[in-house]
Amino acid sequence: MSRPEIHVTLAPELRLFANSELRRERAPVAIDASSSLGHVVESLGVPLTEAGALLVDGRPAAVSHVPSAGESVEVRAVERPQRVPGAPLRFLLDVHLGTLARRLRLLGVDAAYESEDIGDPALAALSAAERRVLLSRDRGLLRRREIWAGAYVYSDRPDEQLRDVLSRFAPVLAPWTRCTACNGPLADAAKDTVAERLEHGTRRTYDVFAQCTVCERVYWRGAHHSRLEAIVEDAVREFGGSAA
Ligand SMILES: [Zn+2]
Question: Which InterPro entries match (predicted)?
Answer without folding.
Answer: Mut7-C_RNAse_dom (IPR002782), Ub_Mut7C (IPR027798)
